[in-house]
Amino acid sequence: MSRIGKKPVVIPAGVEVTVHDRTVQVKGPKGTLRYTHRPEVKVELLDGQSNKQLLVSRTVENRMARALHGLTRALLQNMVTGVVQGYEKRLEIVGVGYLAAVQGRTLELRVGFAHEVKVPIPEGLEVTCPDQTHIVIRGCDKQLVGQFAAAVRAVRKPEPYKGKGIRYQGEHVKLKPGKTTT
Fold first, then answer.
1. Per-residue pLDDT tens digits for 163-175
2. Distance, CA of 78 to CA of 68 (rounded, Å)
3. In sequence order, what are the beta bridge partners of 87?
4. Which of 32, 74, 165, 171 could in theory staple to 27 by disulfide, Cβ–Cβ 3.0 to 4.6 A?
5. Distance (Å, rounded) from C-alpha 114 to C-alpha 121?
């Protein structure tokens, strides 16, 4: 039995959850998220007197169902956390002349190429640049926040000799020694 899957997802006050067929919709102060789970698992909404809970159980007993049991519960927990608190990723840009700016729904990056790289911001995300070398990505969908942060970082990954590029805040880049003369 999945230890994560057995734990119920507690729904805090101010969050509205609806379960219809295989679709779970979570609505809260930060937004609305929807997830359609696989038929191997079943999601029930338990409406108690003091608190509401989502309970995930398996409909069949096989390896795939055991894997999906914990996964579904973790995704539902992330949805509830996202609509209440939201998620945030911070990126920093290292390099002389490297900078970022937000223009409307586009993130513009100058990171050492001959041209400016323009990355469209997906719907549901809030991207800000507190200064020219930092990018803050916020949203209620954990997967979307992480995916967009990874896409921005992939524009110019930190290189191993000088460490120039876009990195997550707090990420340590191991620098290689350069050429040496003997």
1. 999 999 999 999 9
2. 15
3. 139
4. 32
5. 22
